[in-house]
Structure formats: structure tokens, C-alpha cells
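Action item from last week, closing it out:
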Amino acid sequence: MRALFEYDDVLNRPVEAFYFDTRRRPLPFENHYHYFIEVLYMVEGEIAVICNDVRYELKVGDMITMPPLARHSIYQLSEEDCRYAVIKFSADRIRLHGDYLPGISSLFQNPSLSKDLPIYFPEGTIRDFDLKEFTEKVIRELQERRYGYDSVLYAMLSEYLVVLLRYWHDSGYDEQMIPFDNTKEYSIHNIILYVGEHLSENINVSDLADMCHMSYSYFAKTFHKLYGQSCKEYIEFLRLAKAENLLLFTDYDLNYISEETGFSDCSHFIRIFKRKYEMTPKQFRKEYR
């Protein structure tokens, strides 16, 4: 069966979490794939998930974690209404500490290694970790977006991935076969990590293309195809997103914020900010803080 690609807006929404309810939108979801990890947790009813030609039937309390590029479809098993939590995130954004821990991105994006890993967890399979509480808290953090919510999200996602690694380790999976991800090599799929880590610096798109071993034109074309905007537009978006958090959650002055977010000077920062938000940074801070 032909699989359709699902575009993931990782730039604007690096983590997504919500409840899917058949009372609002009916199933099925036809065969598709995407670059992010997708976690489903059943709250009500029963569904069938077919992932890489393997069928899983989920009832209340069950969870499934579908790796990137896995072909999957979702069907309703009966006329009973269904409701399940959905969490989507990029493996490239998760960095686990510990020299012996595998690279999450390498593990999930290597089909020869991940195809035999258990991805379906019936209720009670994973001990000492409350799946229901985990999904509820992730969704709540994204909805409320309180101070430091992004750090809380990545901490919770890291913990969940470690829980999976422990389960696989305890089940006898040979973690020595899992590649380590200690390299600083970047691809078109994870170059956004470098951008995020060097926002305060002068980032040149040509240098990013060189890091991905691509020509400038091919890098620019591929980046736009994957992420729906140019690399330059993305860099500006990320700088404004960081500036927004600094305006809302700190008392730093505009000169410091413009420097910290990589704008050439304060006036440049104010001009770009006003163009997007239709108000100055000071007005934004006063209205939304």
C-alpha cells in the first residue's frame, strides 16, 4: 500500500501534544509516514494501528511509540467512540547524557536496528512509570506554556525515552549494537539543532550548507521543501521566538535581548519584531507579560 508523507512543522512546533477524539473527527488515518516520533496512549475505546505491516490492537491504558519513517495507519475497531492522547516530537531534539547511552536519533532512524524493538506496550507492561500521567502532563504543559515549559517538556520526553531503553535492555536487546551519537556531523534533518545552539552568533547559510556537504542552492531548495520556509526565514523565526520568551519571562533590556538573539543591533531587532508582531518589543512585554 502506498504511504503518504505527513509534513511535520518542526520549526514552529518541535513538540505537539493533544487529544484525538472520534466525536470531532472520524477515523481512519490512511497509510502515512513522517520524520518525527509519534506516541499514542488510549484513553477511551479501541483502535487498530498497523505499523510497518504489523497489526496492534490498543485498548484503554495501552501505548504505542511509532518511530520516524515507519509506515502506519489507524482504524477504529467498533462503533464505540475513541479518544487517545497524541505526542509528536523529533528525536534530534533529545540529548541523553551518559557515554554508554545510545544516540536516540541514530537508533530510531536506523530501520535495521529498530525494526525488532518492541513499540507496543499494553497497560501494565512498563513498571514504575505512569503513562497516563505522562501524557496528561505533556499536553498540559503545552497548553499552559508556563515559565520554563519547554525545558519541562524535553525533560519529560527524555525520561520517557530512557524508560523505553530500560525496557528494551531488560528484555535482552543488545544495546552494544546501537550506534552512539557523539559526532558533530550534521544533516539537513538536524542542522536546526546547530542553528538553535548558535543563535547569538552570525549564522551564514552557506556555512550551514557546507556542514551538510551540500551546495548552497541544493541546501536552500531541500531545506524549503522539508520545512516550508527558507533557512534565513527559519533563523529569524527562531530568534524572534527566543526574544519572545526573554521579553515575557525576564527583565533583560532590549540591547541585551538583541545581542543574545543574534540581531545585528537593537534597532534591527525592534524593526524585525514590529514587522511580525505589529507592535514594539516593549509594547509586547507590557501587554502579554
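Closing note: The mean pLDDT is 83.
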